[in-house]
Amino acid sequence: MENTSGPRAGRKEWTALGVLMLPLLLVSMDVSVLYFAIPYISEDLEPSATQQLWILDMYGFVLAGLLITMGALGDRIGRRRLVLVGAAVFGLASLAAAYADSAELLIAVRALLGLGGAALMPSTLALIRNLFHDAKQRAKAVTLWTAVMTTGISLGPVVSGLLLEHFWWGSVFLINLPAMGLLLLLVPFLVPETGGSGSGSGVPETGAPGAGLSGSGAGGSGARSRFDLLSAVLSLGALLPVIYGIKEWARHGYAPVPALGICAGLLLGLVFVRRQRRLEHPMIDLGLLGRRAFGGPVLANLLAMFATVGMAVFFTQYLQSVLGRSPLTAALWSLVPAAGVAVTAPTAAALAQRTDRAYVMGGGFALSACGFLLFTQVRTDSPLWFTLVGGAVYAGGLVAAMTLANELALGAAPPERAGSAAAVLESGQELGGALGMAVLGSVGAAVYSRDMADALPAGVPQADAVRETLGGAAAVASELPRATADAVLIAAREAFTHGMGIAAVGAASVMAGAGLFAFGLLRGVGRTPAADAQGAQDEATPPAGPSIEARSSVTAGD
What CA–CA distance (Å, rounded) separates 3 from 538? Predict the structure, then answer.
């Protein structure tokens, strides 16, 4: 018997998905597209060291800080409308960035790019919830969404390197314009409006008769409720200092200012949560977040991004600084692990149609742990294929688990809250990536420093710089006599590889824990797509008022 939860999508819906994947790819690419361009930007605009860091980081900070706000805004004004606004802002900011004539202007338009990206990302995932009502088709669509998002981050440096071989640095921004133009042209014809008061999807967003009368259904008073500006400010004030502090910790180690930023962000986060509990129409439905069917996948995604981003730093540095590949060559090789994703993601989606998705998610985490354990055996003289196999195994397992987590959470969210739900998922991913970079990066740095303290030849100048990073060791070695330089570089590469191996042990341990979490706490929540609606109803928290009761009835009927 076929498990469906609504009418099947046709050619129009799949074409709409393809169009929506364009901005998602570019938004995720823009996180990493400046890695190769920054030397050219520095030569042209002459930014200070602090300005250079803000050019790189401003986009990610604003994107992460505004995801929750934009997800809630899309639920209120309409997700298609927000996608169109986000595409216009992203396109105009890309044009301004390409021709920026000062570091200050480039920083400002990078912030605008983050604003446009934050409008686009949760809206694209939320629209999938309303385009695909058949559970099997929605699973395939979410698989594509997750694969495009993760591939974009890896593809950014490759596209940047190829463009910079032939054009000036502004070209890395101009590639956004055709895709945004196509989006603005086609979305009004292919994508129905969902959310807000003007939903015209043709399939009701409410799941039970009269649900919209209570204030939470699409087109009800909840959809038209006043946007809470204070909650938006609090969410931004909570996320930005925390992510900034974690990234600064990863980059420079402990310092008072980043630590105060993390504490201030956590304090504002508590204020934000308290406010959500009191609001009739909160920006985040805390009752939904408390369900295993939604809160569990959010935590699973956070753990997956912890390992993904935390190890990506080591992987690219190993290819460039240990194996001696050029930046572009290293970027191209780093795409090879995507082969593992191409195999495991659709396989996991197919298995999830036949068995409890918790088991498949747990298997994905276990597979990724095996890939990280392979990384513990990588040495300075290991063949490249061995490293790439390890990368393919852990990437394949992680994306398989993340795909199912996204699909499970999106299916558990009421359609009229899909934008907020998608934003919470993506905010968790951003936080997990920042934590992974900080924690695993600090572990690798500590091992590197300890090994270099023991192995560094006596009398080497600038010993502190050599002990701090592999890049610092390479810079110092370039000014030393040949024999001493070789000794320093050999020791530094071995220390870095050892640190990468210990960090991989940490990543494997976290993935093993994530697998046990999926097996133990998510069983029954993801039995089969046909059981999702009833499972979501079973997981509902006790009603706290009319709006909560209505949201529960919507979820049960979807």
Answer: 19
